[in-house]
Design brief:
With 93 residues, the chain is mainly α. The protein has three helices and no strands. It has helices at 2-10, 33-43, 48-53.
Length: 93
């Protein structure tokens, strides 16, 4: 699973740094919520209904600068990558 997360981060730029155990996000990035949702909808149009019903103004306790370690929690980015470039991960046998 880590290889998939690493590819989403390094190759496709669709997620933040995957090697973290931190579950908190920097408060400064909350302003990007609407753009992140738009990117999710771009890459995954079938999630449009869910994205459209999300309220990016809601700010949970997850947004807490005081609890961030070396890297913040893993989240989607604002990058509107192409779904066609995504591939299935190799099957481990």
């Amino acid at each position: 699973m880590l290889n998939v997360c690493q590819a989403l981060y390094e190759t496709h730029k669709l997620t933040s740094y995957p090697r973290t155990d931190c579950a908190y996000l920097p408060e400064s990035q909350h302003a990007d919520a609407a753009d992140v949702l738009a990117a999710i909808k771009h890459v995954n149009p079938e999630l449009g209904g869910i994205v459209d019903s999300a309220d990016p103004s809601i700010k949970s306790n997850t947004w807490d600068d005081s609890k961030i370690t070396a890297h913040h929690g893993i989240i989607p980015t604002m990058h509107k990558g192409g779904r066609a470039s995504l591939t299935d991960p190799p099957v481990s046998g």
